[in-house]
Amino acid sequence: MTPQKTATQFISIRDILTLFFKHKNKFLAIFGGTVAIAIGTAFLMTPIYQAQSSVMVKMGRENVYHPEIGAMSPEISMDQKSMIESEVQILLTRDLTKRVLEALKVGVVYPNITENAPENISSIDAGISEMRKNLSVSKVSESNIIEISFLHQQPEIAEKVVNLLVDLLLEKHLEIFSNPKGLFLSNQLHDYEQKLHKSKSQLQAFKQQNKLTHLDEEKALLLGQRNELNTIHKNLQNEEKGLKSKYESLKGQIKNVPKHVALTSVSEQQKVIDGAQANLLQLGLEEQRLLAKYHETSRFVVNIRNEIRLVEQFIKNQEGSLNDKVTKGINPVYQGLEVEILTVESEINAHASQINEVTFQLKKLYEQLAKLDFLEKEFETLQMKVDSDKNNYKMYLTKVEEAKVSEAMDQLKMANISVIQPATLPLRPVKPQKGLILFLGIIIGGISAILWVIATEYLESGYSRPEYASQDLGLPILTSIPYKNL
Questions:
Q1: 107, 251, 297, 371: which one has the fewest Cβ atoms less than 10 Å from its Cβ?
Q2: Whole-model pTM?
């Protein structure tokens, strides 16, 4: 009868210890072999070193948009997240990896590639592929810092690759974000300088040709003269209207006064002479007022002097007949009215001449103002051209200065990327992790040995303890003899 093992036979600690002591040689062999393999693997694996560097990406001039034309204010062209992601992608470009390998030589970084060159692929391409497997670029969470790390069997190579990669990142960054527009802007500045000089010359020639110094002042002066002449013209018209009314009134009065009367006294004639002299005095004063404003050849002055001569002649005639006791019978009142009518008529004629003169001057002023308005439009057009060329010149002058400063900063490799920690020579390899490998070897060896012992015991026939036989046969145990004593 073949003994059968039940599940309840492997419950007590004694059973477990019996099992392990029974197969201790197998257990130790499997466990020791696994641990030995792990130790051998840890010490035989080629050590891998990791060089690491960190850079900070700041907001800088590269992220500010400066319009090439117009006077718009600069504005930020991207946010911080996009800015950092752009730098990460630049670091991972094939071009940057290729330039590192070309600088350090593929045979130096990966000698096995040059010794065993792959088929249908160049050594540089194979080196790029291998290098990108060992290159890690990551953004530090919640910061604007990028970490660059590289794995290599030689610590010196790992250090050189990372530092060179960071240097090439700065160059590539400036190459991408720099905008060499200084020459273009300088040419534009020269063009606008020539245009400004030309427009200024045209404006100056226009002012000299039309004898313009200060257009606004000249226009204001003409407008002031026009307003003054308009006032004088209106006053003269009002005075002329009053004189005509007076003239009509005197004409009505003289019709009711007899022309001939007997004069028995010289006093009445003297009154007529006195009235004529008073009128002469007024005319003299008017002459002085007109001479203060007009030239002696002016129509106003000539007319008033004609009136003065007429009154003087009348006074002379009256004084000639003053010694006669009996006049020729002319009524002095009639004669006085007649003189006053002549005087008013003369004043009306003088006012008419003055109104004609003022009207003529006003016409000339309106013609000058119309010409000035026409010249003003052309002047404004030329002035606007000068102002436009001046603004463009100033704008491009500013942009040329900015471009020069930017290009100087590019030459000095001044960018918005700062190296926080350059790569240093790694002293300890990151691979293999001997402690971890040994720990895993112990764990795997122990589990493997336990499973092997359990499986062996389960597959074997027989009993490991007398109690199992007694249970299966239902017989009491009289004695037990160890297997080694048989």
A1: 297
A2: 0.45
